[in-house]
Amino acid sequence: MSQHVREVSADEAGAREPGAVAAASPETDYSHHGVLLLFVFIWGGNFVLAEVALREMAPISFSVSRFLVGGMAMLAILYVQRITHARNDGCRFQLFPKLERRDWPRLLWISVLGATLAPWLGIEGLGLTHGARASLWLALGPVMSAGMGYFLNTERIGRVGRVGLALAGLGTLGLALDGLDPARGYWLGDLMLFFAILLAAGELHLIKPLAARYGPTPMVTARTIIGGALYLLVASPSLAEQTWFSLSAWTWVAIVLGGGIGVGVGQWVKVRALRSLGPTRVVLYGNLVPLAALTLAWLTIGTVPTVLELAAGGLIILGAVLLQVIDAPRRYTPNVAG
Question: Which pLDDT score is estimated for 106?
């Protein structure tokens, strides 16, 4: 999440509308909290909808369809931001900033890792497990990113944060052992989800300097378009074989609303809330998503989590809270000042 701190400063420096208020009022804070709480259930519901959709679609077909819808939503958000900025400042409209030649290789790597391989492995892994379990693996992402930052010497982690890393690691081990149970056979799906999260976490560290230099929204959108185009090429045989007119209404909801709102608008909601609430409070909502996914999966499609899944998920979430919320002031203060 240290990336988000830099993203906010970059966004405020170049992409925020003139005249925006820097200090948020309590009423604004409450509105952000309300929207984020709503999106906790939207993000959790995305896992349940994905599990339903995978009964009718090949994993890669569903993933690339939702990814493209999310990309279009992000492109629309970027367009509104940039044209509003151009009108308010009286400058020429430019959708994407001009990248220096030396930054193109990094952007291409980010696009392949974060917008092609990570969603591909993630949806294939989900197809071999179930949505509530996949959401537990997702909770490991921020912890994994912080661990990378610690070993790469780009983030400072205190004693409480190291305890959080250890608890999250213990929870990960518990999930992995549960997946090895022959009666459940989740080990391959778990392995795919683990590598998907590893790639997504690595992307955060690669995109950080580009987001600081050019702004977060243009870079995330550009990465989505480039990686999505490659993803579309890889998935084209599966898309051609898909019987689109036979899909149920809930599958279309998972594609259109899950992609557009859950993936596209959801990213904008998080970045927008960061300006007012700061990263530590925003990230806490992300850690509530697995709880929402578990609850919704149990109430809607009857997926009952095992005791080991609940215990492992609890350790991962507790570790994330210790690392990102309790230990956060120590870790984030240097980046804010810089």
Answer: 94
**22: in domain:** no
pTM for this predicted structure: 0.72
Domain count, the chain: 1
Structural domain boundaries enclosing 301: 2-14+40-337
Per-residue model confidence as pLDDT tens digits over 195-251 = 988 888 788 778 878 888 888 888 888 988 899 899 999 999 999 999 999 999 999
Q: 3-state SS string over the chain?
A: CHHHHHHHHHHHHHCCCCCCCCCCCHHHHHHHHHHHHHHHHHHHHHHHHHHHHCCCCCHHHHHHHHHHHHHHHHHHHHHHHHHHHHHHHCCCCCCCCCCCHHHHHHHHHHHHHHHHHHHHHHHHHHHCCCHHHHHHHHCHHHHHHHHHHHHCCCCCCCHHHHHHHHHHHHHHHHHHHHHCCCCCCCHHHHHHHHHHHHHHHHHHHHHHHHHHHHCHHHHHHHHHHHHHHHHHHHHHHHHHHCCHHHCCHHHHHHHHHHHHHHHHHHHHHHHHHHHHHCHHHHHHHHCCHHHHHHHHHHHHCCCCCCHHHHHHHHHHHHHHHHHHHHCHHHHHHHHHHC
The answer to whether residue 54 is domain-embedded is yes
Question: Does some domain include residue 247?
Answer: yes
What was the pLDDT predicted at 6? 38
In a domain, 116, yes or no: yes
